[in-house]
Amino acid sequence: MKKKLIVANHKMNLDAKKVSVYIKLMQTRANYSNVLVCPTSVYLPFFLKQEYKVGLQNIYFGNSGSFTGEISAEQAKSVGASAVIVGHSERREHFNESDDLINKKIKSAIENDLNVILCIGEKINNKKKMKLIEEQIIKALFKVPKLEKVIIAYEPVWAIGSNKTPTNREIGETIFFIKDLLENKYGYHDFPVLYGGSVNKGNISTLEKIPGVNGYLIGGASLKDEFFDIVEYINNNNEVTNNNY
Ligand code: PGA
To answer: Are 113 and 153 in contact, with CB atoms under 8 Å apart?
Structure first.
């Protein structure tokens, strides 16, 4: 039975001591097969010992070589990671990641049998947003084989870390737009789409009313105890969904 996929994106947070507290907290909560934890890469070995699925926040597209500071999909797979986040808006913004680079990363991840959480989303909530989202998706997925390894995370950039979220109607319309696009362009029915951007314990019951959402990508709230309350709320609330995982 597939449940909603819940991705914890720790970004560049927590020190070693806080990671060990976090892991102890995880051990006191039930293990959920639909949770993917993406810690800062230096902490991967600690998380890989747990029962949760573990992913990376980024990869480089080559398999090995002289690329100081980078981590490849092949290496990620070899330690037991099962997924990677690609195209997060913070990488697009602070590290100038282009759609072309994102496309290469996705292909490399899939070649190495990793699942891909592809982040897309508009910077400004205006009429041009659907066109921009469409472009991001088409460029990112250009000639990507095995689309069933990909999950899209719709994250309006302005909603990330801001405590602001779009209305349920806006999120729902955008998610259906994305699913329609994937169906019309690639013949993929009910493509899994997550929502991300200021998801927290206070708004999860509202967000859960949106039809068509296949899970969530959670940043700030995934660092705190409330993350596990959010997971429990979602799992108690939900029927089967398609999460491509
Ligand atoms: P947030 O981050 O939940 O803190 O808004 C989401 C993300 O950046 O993936």
So the answer is: no
Using an 8 Å Cβ cutoff, are 181 and 120 in contact?
no
Residues 64-81: pLDDT tens digits?
999 999 999 999 999 999
In the chain, the N- to C-terminal Cα span, in Å, equals 11
Catalytic (active site) residue 94: no
Residue span of the structural domain in which 145 resides: 5-236
Report whether pLDDT(240) > 70.
no
| Ligand 1 atom at shortest distance from the alpha carbon of 89 | 8
Which ligand 1 atom sits nearest the alpha carbon of residue 160? 5
For helices 129-140 and 99-111, the axis angle rounded to 10 degrees is 40
CATH of residue 214: 3.20.20.70
Which residues make beta-bridge pairs with 35? 6
Q: pLDDT digits over 1-15, tens only?
A: 478 999 999 999 999
Residue 236 or residue 222, greater confidence: 222
